[in-house]
């Protein structure tokens, strides 16, 4: 009896396990990370199962912090919970260079699939080629660099045209996005290439070469502000001297320096004529009483 009861119990367990396998939703398949220009999008394929409603998906991730500090907990991706799309952008969630465990679960109504897991480290992704702009300033070469990710360092090669084998290498840390190479030969053509590299050793390809001609030695950086300062001082000095001279100038000296311009000859004749007429009138007025006195006598 006991043996028969044990067999029945074992048969029921097998039937339950078989039933659970039949009704369990298959997990999403072909989980992979699509990384381009340091944008990380997790993608998967729809599970091979019929569903009377829309299949929904949820994504979770687990970094070193969640694994070691938070006792292996998983974090839900806020924008990828119960979504109908078969992809999830995890660029902002995967913010460190550590290893990440990722998992995706499918849901059909009340049925849930098992988790489909995937491991990822963004350091294993080839970074994109940077963008550079090359200009000159006198005898200096200026290289501006735009790169992604911002935590990547930059390597810059500079050489005189047709002498790439003797190129000089410059390494720029992650927080530096500009390079200045001074004291170059006037009239020569210099070329530049650049690439970015990560701490893991992954590196991008080099940019196309950018070549510019050095126009000539430029004025030292101190000359422009110094020239402005000297000009301002000289102008102030001249104004002070002029103001002092006006205040302390003796009357005779001031009249010497500020004499009226002489009249032109034509104006002098007109002025003399007016004066002559005026004197003749006075003489006529003086002679009139004398004539009257003689007549009375």
Structure description:
It is elongated and about 145 Å long. Mean pLDDT is 80; it is low at 18-23, 277-281 and 291-297. With 297 residues, it is of the alpha+beta class. The chain has helices at 2-23, 64-69, 223-248, 251-257, 265-296, and strands at 29-36, 39-45, 56-62, 75-76, 87-89, 100-108, 111-112, 116-120, 131-137, 140-146, 153-160, 168-172, 178-181, 189-197, 210-213. The chain starts with a helix and ends with a helix. The strands form 4 sheets. Strands 3, 4, 6, 7 and 8 form a 5-stranded antiparallel sheet that branches. A hairpin with a 2-residue loop joins strand 1 and strand 2. The chain has 5 helices and 15 strands.
The amount of beta strand, in percent, is 25-35%
**What string, H for helix and E for strand, traces the elements in order?**
HEEEHEEEEEEEEEEEEHHH
N-to-C span:
194 Å
Unreliable stretches (pLDDT < 50, length at least 5) are: 18-23, 277-281, 291-297
Largest beta-sheet details: 5 strands, antiparallel
Shape: elongated
**Structural class given helices, strands, pairing?**
alpha+beta
Give me some keywords for this one.
5 helices, single chain, 297 residues, five-stranded antiparallel beta sheet, 29% strand
Layout of helices and strands:
Blueprint lengths: L1 H22 L5 E8 L2 E7 L10 E7 L1 H6 L5 E2 L10 E3 L10 E9 L2 E2 L3 E5 L10 E7 L2 E7 L6 E8 L7 E5 L5 E4 L7 E9 L12 E4 L9 H26 L2 H7 L7 H32 L1
Antiparallel strand pairs: 1-2, 2-5, 3-4, 3-6, 6-7, 6-8, 9-10, 10-13, 11-12, 11-14, 14-15
């Amino acid at each position: 009896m006991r043996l028969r009861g044990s067999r029945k119990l074992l048969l029921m367990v097998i039937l339950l396990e078989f039933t659970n396998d039949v009704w369990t939703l298959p997990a999403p398949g072909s989980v992979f990370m699509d990384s381009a220009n340091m944008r990380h999008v997790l993608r998967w394929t729809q599970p091979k199962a019929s569903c009377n409603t829309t299949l929904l998906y949820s994504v979770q991730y687990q970094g070193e912090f969640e694994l070691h500090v938070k006792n292996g907990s998983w974090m839900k991706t806020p924008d990828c919970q119960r979504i109908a799309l078969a992809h999830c952008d995890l660029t902002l969630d995967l913010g460190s260079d550590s290893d990440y465990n990722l998992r995706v679960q499918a849901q059909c109504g009340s049925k849930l699939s098992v988790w489909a897991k995937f491991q990822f480290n963004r350091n294993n992704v080839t970074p994109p080629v940077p963008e550079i702009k090359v200009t000159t300033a006198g005898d200096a070469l200026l290289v501006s660099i735009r790169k992604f990710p911002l935590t990547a360092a930059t390597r810059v090669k500079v050489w005189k045209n047709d002498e790439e084998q003797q190129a000089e290498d410059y390494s720029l840390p992650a927080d530096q996005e500009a390079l200045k190479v001074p004291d170059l030969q006037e009239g020569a053509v210099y070329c530049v290439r650049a690439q970015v590299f990560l701490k893991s050793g992954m590196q991008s390809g080099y940019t196309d070469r950018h070549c510019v001609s050095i126009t000539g030695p430029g004025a030292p950086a101190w000359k422009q502000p110094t020239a402005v300062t000297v000009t301002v001082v000289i102008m102030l000095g001249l104004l002070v001297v002029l103001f002092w001279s006006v205040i302390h100038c003796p009357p005779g000296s001031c009249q010497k320096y500020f004499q009226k311009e002489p009249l032109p000859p034509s104006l002098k004749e007109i002025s003399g004529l007016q004066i002559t007429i005026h004197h003749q009138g006075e003489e006529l007025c003086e002679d009139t009483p004398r004539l009257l006195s003689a007549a009375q006598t």
